[in-house]
Amino acid sequence: MATSTCTDAFYVNDLDSKQLSAGACPVKGCMSDVKAQLVVYNKKHNLPFCPVHGLRIHGKTFVYYNGGSKEQKELAFKRNIAFNWNFFQAHFIQNTKKVGGHRLSWENSEDAVTYNVFTEMARTQDALRQLLKDVTGTATNKPVELYLWGHRIDLASNTAPYYPHLNQLINELEPGISIATEPDIILRVPGDMLVFIEAKFTSENSLSKDRPAKAGEKPHRVREMVQRYVEQNPFLAEANPFAPDRFPAVIYGQLFRNLVFCASAAKLEGIGKWAVVNLRAQKFMEIRAEEVESEVKELLLPVHQGRFKHYTWERLHEHIKNEADLKNVVSYLEAKSAFCEPAFVLG
Asked: What does pTM read for this prediction?
């Protein structure tokens, strides 16, 4: 069985996309025969593997791979988590299916980028407050809570409690759904402000499909989405921000559900200042930011259209690049690769 003891993480200055395109290990100068030790992926594909650098080759990208045992998989995850590994290991690998999944070890894992950037931002309240002000237009001096995938990131107490109302929302809005809605990022000022963030890295926002949902699936058709999440939503019965009569035949399903869950959670908490943000990388935008904003805002009544914002990782970098306490995050964003090339368009 192919294994590797490599513990290094590789960034853009370490990599050569031309080597990868030629079917070789992408680490500069590597002469390893990656076809000599193939590894099985997804139980049916045999993929090239570099035992020197512990990388499984996937066409235009790579995956950290040390072997198939639990310990070796954890080691591969660790190589992609640049900060706060002990917290991640304690609260996410063992406790959530999503974050403990195999894609965490992928070069293009949006979960890894999200965790690395936001957990370090949580160390300085100023960074989170500034982000809240940027997306809501309102400043706050109160403590900002950060939740990733439903769990609060409390590094000081080494705890990760679940967002207080998420289970209630899921039970009411998604009974019978096998994979429930799970917000990527929540920024919360209890009783005052609530922001849900749908984070993307190299992928685009997913669109709804005109096909029936199978048992246990979320609805795919727009009409069925409206019925489940708006018309049958007890939390929005008296304060519905949506305009279903203006819904097009195809919508951004994840962004719509984030709006539903955020609006419903805000109602439960008695919070008037709430918003949803779509966080994307400028380099991988096939659909322009203006188009996404326009299409999503059409789902909302005019008075609520300001509650949706489009944001970029590049804009986030611009915000924090002069923060002395976040130099490590700034360096990470500047060195991060995607497809073995610079991940972000940074000035």
From this structure: 0.96
Q: Does 274 map to a domain?
A: yes
Query: Residue 298: which H helix or E strand, with range?
Result: none
pLDDT tens per residue across span 114-165: 999 999 999 989 999 999 999 999 999 999 999 999 999 999 999 999 999 9
Cβ proximity of 76 and 54 under 8 Å: yes
Strand residues in the chain grouped as ranges (E): 39-41, 45-47, 49-50, 55-58, 61-64, 145-148, 151-152, 185-189, 193-199, 273-280, 308-312, 337-338, 341-342
Give the number of other Cβ atoms within 10 Å of residue 298's Cβ. 13
In the chain, the number of structural domains is: 2
Residues 321 and 209 occupy one common structural domain: yes
The reply to whether 134 and 222 lie within a common domain is: yes
Query: How would residue 103 be classed by pLDDT, with cut points 50, 70 and 90?
Result: confident
Are 63 and 133 found together in one domain?
A: no
**Residue 248: which domain range?**
117-336
Instruction: Let me know whether 125 and 251 are in one domain.
Output: yes
Q: In angstroms, rounded to a whole number, what is the distance separating the alpha carbons of residues 345 and 281?
A: 8
Distances 247 to 9, 48, 300 between C-alpha atoms, Å: 45, 46, 9
Rg (CA), the chain: 21
CA distance 158 to 273: 29
- Residue in 309, 302, 307 with CA at minimum distance from that of residue 243: 302
97 belongs to a structural domain: no
Residues 69 and 198 in one domain: no
pLDDT at 45: 84
pLDDT digits (tens, 9 = 90+) for 258-312: 999 999 999 999 999 999 999 999 999 999 999 999 999 999 999 999 999 999 9
Q: What is the mean pLDDT of residues 75-94?
A: 93
If asked whether residues 166 and 294 sit together in one domain, one would say: yes
Closest CA to 226 of 298, 299, 280: 299
Same domain, 121 and 70: no
Angle between helices 253-269 and 166-173 (to 10 degrees): 120
209/286 same-domain check: yes
